Amino acid sequence: LPPGPTPIPVFGNLFQLSGSEAPGISIFQKWKDQYGPIFTFYMGPVPFVVLTDYQDIKETIIKDGETYADKYLSPEFNLYFRGGEYGIMDISGDRWREHRKFAVLQLRELGVGKSQMESKILEEAEELVKKLKTCEILQEDFVLQTDLDVAVGSVINQFLFGYRFDESKMHEFVKIKTLVNNFMEEVGKPLGVLAFTCHGIPPFIVKQMVSGIEEQKRELFGFLRAQIQDAKLRINYEEEHNDDFVEAYLRKKYQREQNNDFESYCDSQLENVCFDIWAAGFDTLTNTIGFLFAYAINYPEMQKIIHQEIDEYLGHHRRLLIMSDKNSLVYFNAFANETQRLANILPMNLPHALTRDVELKGYYLKKGTGVIHQIANVMTDETIFPNPYRFDPTRFIDENGKLRKVEELCPFSMGKRQCLGEGLARMEIFLLAANLFNYFEFLPASDGLPSLFKDFSLVSHVIPFKCRIRSRDHPEESK
Ligand code: HEM
Q1: Of 152, 419, 429, which is best to mutate to test ligand 1, by the most ligand atoms within 8 angstroms of its C-beta?
Q2: pLDDT digits over 232-283, tens only?
């Protein structure tokens, strides 16, 4: 194995990892400086080979994708939490392949990149604008994140179950959000990471190690089961049209069952895929948009450029921005790219495993070895992004004023496991954030600027902040 920091018994290097300073990747940078771009560290007794250079990642994860496509996760944890090898994110092999393909297809069929999903996200943008207008009148400090959360949660819930969180469903949303957040927090702790990754820990010990997620498990899966049950009651298998992901899945399951296949599409798998989409899609996205506003308030001169660009583009006629406007708003896109680069939402990428023995830069690695390609370190590599901790959207704008495509900007990862929600996430970032800038100016609250510090576990969290909002219905006032 490549060299790396000395592990301590049982825990390996976990405490160094969890003691890492913000932005959460400093320990990987330190190890990289000490041992080179490829090194080994231990989560518990398990070694993980870490790749930190873009060129190495390109040669492996991208060009030899199949070899790096498995996930390194504990079967015992999966059994305890998921009831077995179910879902997309934490499994490997044929079931992963089949269900990843199915989820990608459904995202397309249900409108990502098309007008159906766009109009659903625009509905959320409109609700946000309406809500913020009332707050602007009240002239009070305002926690923007609360409403961003509802918008992002509603889009996922629409996709999965066909309904958004309006006032009548708000209690449900608050509950789900709290459960998902607590789950992320618990599994991000050293014992959680250990239980989550280490193979061979007896199931009753795994259960003790993550006893904090017992309630989340029960309640979250209870919620998902109830939604699936409702869908089963209303679905008409004679029809072909699907309103949401669960309907599409149930129809596929029904077709398979007609051919005596009761395994590949089953209730446990459906519950777990819904869990993955909720868990993977909510925290990542809502925190990305939260960071975007935190940066905009911290850098008012940049916010001004976003406003000017929108005003010049729309002229006197303010209207909701739609996807076909996106490419014209170069500075906004550069600002969003820079947010994703520096927010670096996954301080440690998810561990993959080798599907075969392989030679990697002179090291012979056995099938099953854990490999982590550190996209967070690529995005803060000073040879690619000079002065990497400086927030500077212009690094994504070329000399002709066009958006620069930088392949090392990889917040959604690369290779066979690349985020399958990327298209949806990009639509939401644009339609929600650009429209809020379209209608409002965001200013510091009376207690000061939003913190740019990251509260990190599995996902980097923006520290909740208050801000003040000024309507831009009269653009000349805010100049
Ligand atoms: C800004 C928002 C998002 C970011 C930064 C993000 C980032 C990531 C990253 C880094 C991975 C790991 C890839 C790897 O293993 O190498 C991932 C996987 C995944 N993401 Fe996202 N994601 C976002 C939004 C979403 C959304 C909205 C959804 C749901 C539609 C989603 C669903 C998934 C799923 C299911 C996986 C697992 C894919 C697999 O293992 O095959 N993500 N995401």
Answers
A1: 419
A2: 999 999 888 898 999 999 999 999 999 999 889 999 999 999 999 999 999 9
Q: ipTM beyond 0.90?
A: yes
Q: How far apart are CA 204 and CA 200, in angstroms?
A: 11
CA 60 – ligand 1 centroid, Å: 19
Q: What pLDDT score was predicted for residue 474? A: 55
Q: Is the CB of 121 under 6 A from ligand 1?
A: no
What helix, strand, coil percent values describe the chain, rounded to 5? 55, 10, 35
d(CA 281, CA 277): 5
Query: Ligand 1 centre from 233 Cα, in Å?
Result: 31
How far is the centre of ligand 1, averaged over its atoms, from the C-alpha of 67 (Å)? 20
- Please calculate the CA angle 286-415-332 and round it to the nearest 5 degrees: 40
The two tokens of residue 384 are: 């690619």
| CB of 276 closer than 6 angstroms to any ligand 1 atom | yes
Strands (E), 239-390: 352-353, 358-360, 363-365, 370-373
**pLDDT by residue (tens digit) across 75-84?**
999 999 999 9
Gap between the Cα atoms of 173 and 181, Å rounded: 12
Is 87 touching ligand 1 by the criterion CB < 6 Å? no
